Amino acid sequence: RNVTGVQTCALPISSADNTIRIWASPSGELKHTIEAETKGVTSVSYSADGKYIASGGMNGYVSLWNALDGSKVTDFTEFKSQVNTVAFSPDVQYLAAAGDDNKIIIWDLASRQVKKEISAHEKGVTAIAFSDKGGIFVSTGNAGSIKTWDMKNLKIGKKKFVSDSEAEPKIVCSPLQITEDNNNGDRKSVV
Fold first, then answer.
1. Residue (of 95, 81, 6) closest to 46 by Cα position
2. pTM of the full structure
């Protein structure tokens, strides 16, 4: 991410040491070390605007951090078990997190309030990711299921994927990205 002219990235060094380290790239200079109060950092996500870092922990906390100085913005404490994954919407309007208690929680970042809590998978949620346009997100579960969700009404997709446009999209999913392609040849990726 380009934050005030400095390329940066966030990286959890170890879930055992409870830290998040922010490195400048390509110099490799350590910019900040965040001492997370959670029992083991399990997931980290950078917001698309470079202002925030979210982290999830083994104790069920989701923490929001200022990416520029490493200070804590707030904690979200709605989870009762380990948080496995955190993700920002591309417009940084929402933060989503999911974990071992089978649910996905989506917060409105402006109000810091829960927008939606979804019972998502039977054996815990392992990963979530927003599409590049933010119209959908995908979740995966420990039982091997993959679900797509429509952000407009936060309901699970049915027979076909949902899209920000009228064309049926192709969706490419990996641990790092979801790309919506509306068959017009323009493809964007979020990493």
1. 95
2. 0.76
